[in-house]
Amino acid sequence: MSESRNEKIIAEFRDNDGHVGGNLEGSPLVLLHSAGAKSGTRTDTIRVRARELSGDERTAVWEEQKRRFPRFADYEQQTTRTIPVLPITRR
Questions:
Q1: What's the confidence (pLDDT) of residue 43?
Q2: 6-20, 31-45, 66-80: which is most confident
Q3: Is the distance from CB of 70 to CB of 35 less than 8 angstroms?
Q4: Between the N and C ends of the chain, which has fewer C-beta atoms within 10 Å?
Q5: Burial group, residue 20, by CB count within 10 angstroms (0-12, 13-18, 19+)
Q6: Using an 8 Å Cβ cutoff, are 44 and 34 in contact?
Q7: Cα–Cα nearest to 31, from 21, 40, 19
Q8: Which domain holds residue 26?
């Protein structure tokens, strides 16, 4: 069985201290993994909370993200869906 695109990115992320190349090179990237009670393993666990932004708050963050990383704007042009924006904070 061949590795999926996500599995390859995860392996590269882990092997290169949180950095990846290709079309994601230079983009902000966080590797999130939720371990199931029966199937997961835990390493360097940090409790966090994510929430989806909306309205003016989402717009402000999204516009800044597109300014800093133009690939986000390119992606936005390729889809009709609203791309979720989720800040992650430590609990």
A1: 61
A2: 66-80
A3: no
A4: N
A5: buried
A6: no
A7: 19
A8: 1-45
pLDDT value of residue 41: 57
Which of the two residues, 9 and 77, has the higher pLDDT score? 77
Looking at the structure, tell me whether residues 9 and 41 fall in a common domain: yes
Does the CA dihedral 51-34-64-77 come out positive or negative? negative
Same domain (yes/no): 59, 32: no
Number of domains present in the structure of the chain: 2
Is the separation of the CB atoms in 55 and 16 below 8 Å? no
Give residue-wise pLDDT tens across range 43-87. 667 778 889 999 999 999 999 999 998 888 998 999 999 999 999
90 in the same domain as 52: yes
Q: Which two tokens stand for residue 16?
A: 């290169």
Q: For residues 61 and 42, what is the distance between their CA atoms, to the nearest angstrom?
A: 31
Residues 38, 71 within the same domain: no
